[in-house]
Amino acid sequence: MARNAVGFGEDELRTLAGARSFERGVGYLDAVSGLEVGDGAVIARVHGSDVYEVELTLGEGTGTGVSGRCDCPYGQEGNFCKHCVAVGLTVLRQAAIPRQRAAARARASGLEAWLAVLSRDELVALVQEQVAGDRELRRRLELRAAAAHCDVDTLRERVVALVDPRPFERFGYVEYADACGYARQVEEAADALRALTAGGQAAQAVRLAEEAIRSLGEVYGEVDDSDGVVGQAAHAVVDAHMQACRGARADPERLAEWLVAHVLGDGNDVTDLDPLEYADVLGSAGLARMRQLAAEALRRSPRGWAEQYLMERLVKAEGDVDALVALYAKDLLPSGATHLRIAEELDAAGRGSEALAWAERGLRYTSTEAHVDGRLVDYVCARYTRADRTAEAVSVRRDRLRAERSLTSYQQLRAAVGAVGGWGSEREAALALLREDPRQGRGGRFGGAVLMDALLDDGDLDAAWREASSGADERQWQQLADLSRTTRPADALAVYLRMVEQLKEPTGDRVYERMALLLRGARDCHRALDTLGEFTAYVCALRAELKRRRKLMTILDRHGL
């Protein structure tokens, strides 16, 4: 649909939402209610699993077309969701929208003109009238007034109340549906702290922010913050704390001590505070004190995650690669992931030969491990390939297949050998290795034999048929049948019919859909065998047997069976 008087069309909605969300949005047209048209925006409610509020910003004349905001979980992640699509389509289908926008523009202009001529007393009376009927507005204005008057006691009382989740705890914790409301309160607390700093009371704001951050850390375990909205609001409090520290020219060593205590405590889950964001306030003295405290903490708890994270951040900031390598080397993971991190840091510092040496050491360190970080193996093989050491890359891939007999290891060996040739003999040795695997019956990605996965991945269907009876699971049997409809239709047909028989007892849409797909495969086999009459008779008998399952009959009809 071409762009029209509202500034966008269906094509733009489809582009913003994606095909899937757009099609789902079409199904929500009847769920849109309470459409409010303003000059530059449209607000509406959409009734789905919950009632969601959608706001579309209309960019007519700006070249932006339309943007949307929805308070559903998907919309809160910044996506143009199906609810936005439904409201957008509703707007496009209402011819009166341009006239309503013009009317909204006129109303806004009239309101502005009216407010401009009111006296001070009349404006005060108007605000007091609104405050009396809107508790949230009153609370926000009270906070602003307290900040403006530097009323620290009132501000402390209000901030403490705003970060207290108890008003939202219906069953002892803040449920997912109430997290957004609680997050809005926390953001109000951040606004109040910023206002206090702007009012010349930065030192008071620092202490109050630290109290709020501590409280948030204590109560965060009682909040279902699946969408991270409370965490975002808490970080706004951290930002207000940083701003206050700058304004107050906080004591660097005292700030360092507070930051270390917070990062190593249990309260950093909600704020995810990075102490190096305070580097400009800490200065050299504060950073030195933080490094000292971090080293002491790491000595007390050498395997502590928070202690390692803090020291890593400080060492990285100093740019001392050798110190960082030494730090990592104290706790080498058995997967080889730590060796890889060291190699990457050395690579970034332009020390490629040392990086490769560490990565090779990681391969030796993990040579007997079944599960190794694949990125380490990839790193070494890529370096070997770039250095024209392809034979060594093949050797690494061969060793990994011996240690980890998986389809992925087999595929990677095949790709490595393909670069130098000679896959035939190498393949036989690899297949022999998989064939003798004592885990043969349960080694594949989904429980079947790795050997079967390898043969199917190679397209060696004759060998796969020979091995199937001793090692294939149901997934592999079906894949083998799917690949053999035209070349071995009789064998494939037997597999399909056996699986259909197994699905007669279970019920449910997923079962019925799978049965329909199996029957379509069986039909292809009959077609290849020129026995479609037998297939028709089989399906008729199956329908008669299962005729009481109406949903199954509907699904079979949809598949033309």
Give the termini distance in whole angstroms.
37 Å
Shape: flat
Number of helices: 29
Strand order of the largest sheet: 1-2-3-4
Percentage of residues in strands: under 5%
Rg, nearest Å: 33 Å
Average pLDDT for all residues: 86
Got a strand count? 4
Main beta-sheet strand count, sense and barrel state:
4 strands, antiparallel
Q: Residue ranges: pLDDT <50 for 5 or more in a row?
A: 438-447
Helical fraction equals 55-70%
Class from helix and strand fractions:
mainly alpha
Describe, in plain words, how this protein is organized in 3D.
- By secondary structure, the chain is mostly helical.
- Helix content is 68%, strand content 5%.
- The chain contains 29 helices and 4 strands.
- A 4-stranded antiparallel beta sheet has the order 1-2-3-4.
- A hairpin with a 3-residue loop joins β1 and β2 (41-47).
- α12 packs across α14 and α19 (374-386) runs antiparallel to α20.
- Mean pLDDT is 86; it is low at 438-447.
